[in-house]
Amino acid sequence: MTFDIPLKADLSRGRPYLAIPGPSVMPERVLAAMHRASPNIYGGDLIEMVAGMWPDLRAIAGTTHHVAAYIANGHGTWEAANANLFSRGDKALVLATGRFGIGWAESARAVGVDVEILDSGKSSPVDMNRVEERLRADRNGEIKAVLTTHVDTASSVRTDIPALRAAMDAAGHPGLLAVDCIASMGCDEYRMDDWGVDLTVSASQKGLMTPPGMGFVWFSEKARQRCLGSDLRTPYWAWGPRAEPTEFWQYWDGTAPTHHLFGLREALTMILHEEGLPNVWARHEALAKSVWAAFEAWGRGNERIGLNMADPAYRARAVTAARIGAPDATRLREWTETRAGVTLGIGLGMALPNDPAWHGFLRVAHMGHVNAHMTLGVLAVIEAGLQALDIPHGSGALEAATKVIAEAVA
User: Fold this and answer.
1) Which of 59, 229, 231, 298 has the smallest number of Cβ neighbours within 10 A?
2) In a 3-state reduction of DSSP, which class is residue 250?
3) pLDDT in tens, 331-377
4) Are residues 216 and 104 part of one domain?
5) Pick from 65, 92, 66: which is nearest to 78 by CA?
6) How does strand 17-19 pair with strand 342-346?
7) Strand pairing of 176-180 and 199-203?
């Protein structure tokens, strides 16, 4: 028996790699921890394990204050925050740096919050002078809270939260500061208490390396007191019983997400008790810089290729948004997935899907359970795709990326 060798090899066989900004790569240890029979939810090991997790959940957000957990995705944590922060008609100032800032604003507006958006566009950081000016103009303190993304998952723009707190303090404004850390938690440095944040939201499926399905809201005592009379709160979204339960079921307002909890317990152990959170931040910093170095090399002499956020100080360490020029970003994503087994993220929110420009953007995730060979492998596949598709690009990308990694671990 003889076989004809195909003219073009399919190199996508083997384990696929998902380089999208969530769900992120899950460690085998997390998957193995979840692979068990259903536990008793009324006593025993599960209840003891959960009691030990709450200090770790506080630690990963950098707070000693309250944390409430929900069976929800990131959009659910927006709604949990909205329901507890606001009464119908309260005013929120939303600082948007991309699609997900706008998304939180839409979520708040849909439940009756009076939302004002300061939109910085899709490729610029928040202008803190503009924020301070707007808050100074709010002489009657109508703005109850300032909402922002730490990292906007679509644009990969990172907001300087200490600078935002400083702008609010300089304006002498009493509003609460609420931060979406859905993309950044466990990836980018974040210190809730030290930075003067009153409320933080996040979810399980990105830096926390656990399947989608759990969301978290951390809130200060000041936020709890300020929001005692909020009338959007419903029994399911109310944070009080979840943060201070007298019975186990109140953590979830019902049945616990048992297997997610086993996975999260393993993930928190890996992050906090084995690698250590500062080392996790340093790893993400190095991997992000290697991706930036590659794109900067590909873009030399070719303005069609570049990073969405020009200033490195405002770039996320969890995900990188880039442009390659329509339709080449879509062509490249299709090639890397079907020919090499690497799935890149779509350019979410950078243009409408029916706009030809939509095909000019993509994202590379480097969040959670990711190491040097995984990120360098993604970059090598992108390089191969650029060559295979005859997409014009500069040279030296892999050399630049590997130099960053070598210097980071020297």
Assistant:
1) 229
2) helix
3) 999 999 999 999 999 999 999 999 999 999 999 999 999 999 999 99
4) yes
5) 92
6) parallel
7) parallel
